[in-house]
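@channel sequence for tomorrow's demo:
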Amino acid sequence: MKSSIPLLGAAAILAIAADTRAGYEDNLNNCYKNTDGSGWCYGSMRGFRTSADASAYAAFTSTATTFSSTYFVASFNSDFYTCVPSSGSPIESLWPLAHNSDLYFTIGWDSNGTCTYLYVASGSANYY
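structure tokens (generated this afternoon):
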């Protein structure tokens, strides 16, 4: 008599492997501001573009001409959010990555509007 255990094991492995989330698209978007003006935003550019809030947007901006400016700006749920990283900070060094529309990001700022935290992640699934 043949055992069905190997067959069941193979079926379980195939079921797990089938959920690879290839082509996963991160559509998250959210921002929050504390009473002192500090706050955070998270999501992806795609998430802000596809938001139910028609006026939602987010941008990581860099300008390197005679006027040099790097800042984050977003609009979400009828509020405006912005911060500027300290020049030469490690946060500023991640700015080029944050322009990627498939990238998940979390950014935070203090009550002075200085970006204090930037996390960026990219992958085939939302496991960050």
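heads up for whoever presents: Residues 7-22 have pLDDT under 50 and may be disordered.
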